[in-house]
Amino acid sequence: MPLTDYEIVIGLEVHSELRTESKIFCGCTTQFGQGANSQVCPVCLGLPGVLPVLNEKALDYTIVAGLALNCEIAAVSKFDRKQYFYPDLPKAYQVSQYDQPVCKKGWLEIGVDGNSKEVKKVRINRIHLEEEAGKTVHSGTGILDSDYGMQDYNRCGIPLIEIVSEPDMRSPREAKDYLEKLKIFLMYTGISDCKMEEGSLRCDANISLRPRGETQLGVLVELKNMNSFRAVQNALEYEAERQTELLDEGEKITKQTRTWDENKGITVFMRSKEESSDYRYFPEPDLLPMVVTPEHVEKLRNLLPEMPDSRYQRYQTEWGLSEYDAGLISSTKEMADYFEAAVAQYGEAKTIANWVMGELTRLLNQERVAYKDLKISPSDLVKILQLIDKGTISGKIAKTVFEEMFFTGKDPEKIIQEKGLVQISDPSQLTAIIQQVLTNNPKSVTDYLAGKEQAIKFLVGQIMKATKGRANPGAVNELLLKELATKK
Questions:
Q1: Residues in contact with 335: Cβ distance below 8 Å, sequence separation at least 6, in sequence order
Q2: What is the pLDDT of residue 426?
Q3: Does domain 427-485 correspond to CATH entry 1.10.10.410?
Q4: What global pTM score does this model have?
């Protein structure tokens, strides 16, 4: 049967490191990029005789994630020991959560197979808090072509949340869209930087196939080692085709874990998939259960910012932005905050949106500058727009001033004075310039008088060139037409 005769069923397990200054059970720093094994202590190395002490901020951040994703917050949760033997796990077990996670029964809304007009809720089974494992540094480019690996335990003990979805996604595109939106939500809360290149956001995908119309789930295959959202989509697309071929040949799908080979564009067998019983969970004896009061949950809920879905709708209904503009601006909290601060002072949301999505975003991307390092405040942008409204500068000159402000942080009026950029609006001064341009371009004058309307654009361009862009465009057009009328 072709793939279209099967229904793809996908669930995702997303791991996100929490942005705390110290690790979950000790005081070691979580700073990224330091020398190997330079940020470790007896606790995070799992040496005998030490006792872990919970970092309360890690628990609060987990609750915040749950609230942002519409979860129920457990009044009592506990830690468990998850037993497995990997070289990057020095204790030979991971402190995680099994049957009593911090958060459960949440959801996140996405478009159906990329269609923003039709939405669905992807249910979130649970969000649990655990400690991060170390990192194996391979001798080759990856595990498949390496002769040996070395262990860096700096990452051991960094607080980590695992967000486990229900198998509610029906295409690789939906999985990618879910991940992109989940990242936006996590970054809005500020609990994680979600940098996939630093390993602070990772995803394992579970995929199975079943004939369309069936309700029973097929045998799942877990996919690991995907380093981008695009890689997740590509790996799932390949795996769906692979499983289709096996099923059509009458072979059984085995429950297994596979890795994604980015270079070859294929999934490769790693090992048989473990069951929960294989991990031999039992309650962590060195940590007491965590008790969270309703009052504390509400305190954290009140600290949440307005989330992107709400802003997306509000920008359209209150300020008349298009779906595209509202979606782009609300997708980044820093951009949305900047945009709203400028709108509050200026009032015209569409004008602000054009500048934020246009000149500001261009310069941010070009110079690789973050919003937190911007030298142009929302008030500065408003000043430029008000100078345009007053006729002090033209829209074209405003872009020049804006770019100068971006690099220097100078006041726009100071830049205008220093560079002599005040717009020329005086009719007598403009008329003299226009007359000179007409004298210098007799053919264009003749063409215009002969009915070639395009000639006037050339003449306007020459006038703007003569004034170095400082001429008032509206006044130029009006005065130019008057001068041309006298030559008929």
A1: 328, 329, 356, 361, 371
A2: 64
A3: yes
A4: 0.85
